[in-house]
Amino acid sequence: MRMVDLIHKKQENQTLTQEEIQYIVKGFTEGKIPDYQMAAFNMAVYFNGMNPKEVSALTMAMVESGDQIDLSAIKGIKVDKHSTGGVGDTTTLVLAPLVASCGVPVAKMSGRGLGHTGGTIDKLETIKGFQFELSQEDFIQQVNQHQVAVVGQTGDLTPADKKLYALRDVTSTVQSIPLIASSIMSKKIASGADAIVLDVKVGDGAFMKTIEMAEELATTMVEIGNHLGRKTVAVLSNMDQPLGFAIGNTLEVNEAVETLKGNGPEDLTQLCLSLGAQMLLSAQRVKSIQEGTDLLQEQIDSGAALKKFREFIEVQGGDASFIDEPERLGKAKYQIPYLAKSSGVVSHWVANLVGEAAMVLGAGRAVKEDQIDPVVGIVLKAKVGDSIQEGEPLAIIHSNREDISDCLARLDQAVQIADSAEELPLIYKTID
Ligand code: URA
Ligand code: CA
């Protein structure tokens, strides 16, 4: 086989065989296929796409490029949840204990945040003593004993994806549905999931700006999962505005606690119930979405979900006192109100701009090497559809510096106040 022939084949919009795709991924990972040939191939895929069989073969070849986590020693169906990345998205911190409290094992590997989106590990790291580096044995033992563990990425998972993503990033081939779908699904499959629930974000703050694009991505990922024997379902959810009120690491941990106590923001709570019900259904814990939603609500109302959260934090070495005393997580030096410049109804809170406004305060990373300031961020006081009077706070900015002009400039761009607001659905549809 010669790479140049395979590039030509995809350029001619012909279908590649599994062997050909394996040859490409293996050759590229091992450094035998140079970046310039792989870049040309990516561009051919960008324009001509791949059929479901090809995307599944690409996904599996990436899975096989590195370590695969074996979770078979954990009893039950292991369901993983993945979000394509949002602003203020605290769902994992809520869902992990909530679903585990129903007796369904949650063995979760999470990452760090980049750009305007946050990462679960950055949030958990704000909890004193919390250990997210567990050995494979301890990880499995903890899930068997406590139904939940959340760890950072361990081992050398999907090195092909890491190398490919870096190349896509500099060749304008990130925005290709087969390449995104195989990238996401390869990581989920390599981390040992039996079933996968995908939260595909749509809107200003998301990778996918339109419902059509999000639906195509979701369908492709569901096809891959089902092709490779992992029951997969995708929920398309709105990311025009941030999820919940809090954006920033300790602020979001406290928001997760409030949600587990039953006092969380409406949208975050609803999304957690929807995704959680899909997880319970995939794990065959319940027979319908309604039964799942009811069970999850019961776990919140009875305090069982919060109890599981405390257990999870403590068993991973964390100081759980913040659950009763939120100020234990620390506080930024300044709390600066961001005031409405006119009266009306909030019609836009553009998610990625709010995410960037929090990032420049130090809540996120512009580049991988940046340090995070755990206590800074933004707490919204009004969301889309809420009425506001001129001079009332739209948000509170938690900052460790007094000059926040860079943050304010982004918020000025992010918010719009009008006579009325278009009602945003939280969930557009579910694809299974
Ligand atoms: N997230 C991923 O993990 N991969 C992509 O290609 C895009 C988003
Ligand atoms: Ca939030």
Q: What does this protein look like?
A:
With 432 residues, this protein is of the alpha/beta class. The protein folds into 3 domains: 3-49, Transferase, Pyrimidine Nucleoside Phosphorylase, Chain C (Transferase, Pyrimidine Nucleoside Phosphorylase, Chain A, domain 3, Up-down Bundle); 79-324, Pyrimidine Nucleoside Phosphorylase, Chain A, domain 2; 330-418, Pyrimidine nucleoside phosphorylase-like, C-terminal domain (Aldehyde Oxidoreductase, domain 3, Alpha-Beta Complex). Helices cover 44% and strands 16% of the residues. The protein is built from 16 helices and 13 strands. It has helices at 3-11, 18-29, 35-48, 52-63, 91-100, 120-124, 136-146, 159-169, 177-190, 211-227, 249-260, 266-282, 289-301, 304-315, 351-363, 405-414, and strands at residues 79-83, 106-110, 148-152, 195-202, 231-238, 246-247, 334-339, 344-349, 377-380, 387-388, 393-399, 415-418, 427-431. The strands form 4 sheets. A 4-stranded mixed β-sheet has the order 1-4-5-13, with helices on both faces. A 4-stranded antiparallel β-sheet has the order 6-9-11-7. Strand 4, helix 10 (211-227) and strand 5 (231-238) form a beta-alpha-beta unit. Helix 9 crosses helix 10. The radius of gyration is 22 Å and the shape is globular. It starts with a helix and ends with a strand. The model has no long low-confidence stretch (mean pLDDT 95). Calcium ion (CA) binds at residues 88, 90, 243-244, 246-247, 252, 255, 268. The site of uracil has 7 residues, from helix 9.
